[in-house]
Amino acid sequence: MATLNPLQFLQQVRAEVGKVTWPNRREVVLTTVMVFVMAALTAMFFFLVDLTIRTGLQAVLGMFG
After folding, report:
1. How many whole angstroms separate alpha carbon 8 and alpha carbon 15?
2. Helix (H) and strand (E) counts in the chain
3. Is residue 55 domain-resident?
């Protein structure tokens, strides 16, 4: 097992961070908006599924009660 001293480790970390392609402001805003839109669509879908199941269950239980 190779051991690195802390200075070498920090130099390697700095070199790797320099290779990262960071998103620009437009990309961050666009992906954030996309996340909120998808979350809203998912919430509406599950609301409609819940409403359908609840209505159907109430109808079935209404027949026997």
Report:
1. 11
2. 2, 0
3. yes
